[in-house]
Amino acid sequence: MNMKPTLFLLAAGMGSRYGGLKQLDGLGPNGETIMDYSIYDAVQAGFGKIVWVIRKDFEEQFRTQILSKYESKIPCELCFQSIDALPEGFKCPEGRQKPWGTNHAVLMGKDVIKEPFCVINCDDFYGRDAFQTIGKFLSGLKDGSKNEYAMVGFRCCNTLSENGSVARGICEYNDAHHLTDVVERTEIMRVPADGPICYKDEKGEWVAVEDNVPVSMNMWGFTPDYFAYSEEYFKEFLSDPKNMENLKAEFFIPLMVNKLINEGTATVEVLDTTSKWFGVTYAADREATVERIAQLVKDGVYPEKLW
What we know:
This protein is an alpha/beta fold.
């Protein structure tokens, strides 16, 4: 019998652009957080366990506000990301304050996740279809499956903010729908406001892309072998002096994934979804998000009281 997949929520972000712990901001009719909707959708899609990676300094608030809601309903685990959680022989550079990035956060789950798992950001609203899609993929893997991963590719036009640029991984894939490249673009928006979707390249110039180009919203499907690859590659990453000198260098998931697919170690299937992403990248996004959730409740997609 296949193990039920685990939902792994990255919740250690500092909410720097938004101001405050946006992970715990109540946006639903009864103060539900975006994360509550993700967990609800995941449970409906057949996930059997929830794991969060958070910062140790808001553990107490997290246990009171979040964990207490779920512990009686589904198996839950917490793990912690800190900038000094490094492999043996490495030391955090002096003056570094920024976490080491999304793939470092993923690594923190290696001792508690032993089954296929889906990684998501806790402050992005992914939508029912996205969870059904990745849940079906993970549940369909053979026992002991390795090196067969997946990514939900959102259509870029379904992932923009009206209040500024967004960061996305722009994806390219082959005829088998296997990912061939994912490039993290930190500034994506329509230029001008009613024009094509563009990203800013290394030279600071705007480059146009198709509306439906698949982008990574950090919704990945992995099996536990991914942790071992990440550990090895993180050591390489830290051994590179430029990553140690740059106090903002980050070990992103796309960096790890690109290495594995370019070496031919693993495949990553790009799964299409009709879901429309929304979230609170900027404080100004909050109102629109509250309205969209209220509409989904009104349309009967979610019950008024989730749990």
